[in-house]
Design a protein that fits this description.
Layout lengths: L1 H14 L11 H9 L4 E5 L5 H8 L3 E6 L2 H10 L8 E5 L15 E7 L7 H14 E12 L11 H8 L3 E11 L4 E10 L9
Parallel strand pairs: 1-2, 1-4, 2-3, 4-5
Antiparallel strand pairs: 5-7, 6-7
Bound molecules: S-adenosylmethionine.
Length: about 200
């Protein structure tokens, strides 16, 4: 499954068919950066590094993971004016984050814009655990995922997100909309890793 996705995304980068790659960081992320103190962030499925650029401009350190070499190459070029120690880019599959010991265990912010929602079943559960395991207590996970559609194998239902990620993160809010670029209903989710003493609620 991941191999199919890899082939699809590689072809899309090779042919320049990347409607998601607007070069603009979504306002939901910019609003968060304006409100949070700078820390360490991880962008899963970072694409060409647009969001990482804005994280760095706001004083964050940032790591990015994407499995398409072309995406990582473009991101490296885009971020070349920033100090090298401010960011790290990994060409890797997000379903194998354990194979990246360089990743931190205490990110203040993890972002997934349109990446993880291609994973189903056990892979989704394992992905949720991998994310929770790399967030600092109180750390934020910002997720942008499409809803399931009959004609597509991609998508997470909001109920599914709440159930699977809710095992270790509290859902702070969900915001539904329509993504014109992919022609699908989507949701933004803001989740926060529970501190040890919390058993539920936000
Ligand atoms: C829809 S694009 C979004 C890119 C970026 N987040 C943005 O908003 O511009 C999804 C990205 O996730 C990457 N991706 C998808 N599945 C992945 C996986 N299993 N491992 C690593 N990267 C993946 C793709 O290569 C692509 O760059």
């Amino acid at each position: 499954m991941t191999e199919d996705r890899y082939a699809t995304f590689s072809e899309r980068y090779a042919s320049g068919d990347m409607p998601w790659d607007s070069g603009i960081t979504p306002p939901e992320i910019l609003e968060l950066l304006a409100a949070l103190p700078a820390g360490c962030a991880l962008d899963l499925g970072c694409g060409t590094g647009t969001v990482i650029g804005d994280l760095l401009r706001h004083g964050w350190r940032a790591d990015g993971v994407d499995f398409v070499p072309r995406a990582i190459d473009i991101a490296r070029a885009k971020l070349s004016d920033f100090p090298p120690e401010s960011h790290r880019l990994f060409r890797h599959d997000v379903t194998g984050l354990d194979e990246l010991p360089e990743l931190r265990r205490n990110y203040n912010l993890i972002i997934d814009i349109g990446c993880g929602h291609t994973l189903g079943g056990d892979a989704m559960t394992e992905y949720a655990f991998a994310i929770a395991g790399r967030l600092a207590p109180g750390g934020i996970f910002m997720l942008y995922a499409s809803h399931p559609r009959p004609e597509s194998s991609v998508g997470w239902a909001p109920r599914q997100v709440a159930d699977v990620f809710g095992a270790q993160l509290n859902l702070l809010w969900e915001q539904r909309g329509d993504d014109q670029a992919i022609g699908a209903p989507v949701s933004w989710y803001k989740l926060r890793k529970r501190r040890k003493e919390q058993r539920g609620g936000a």
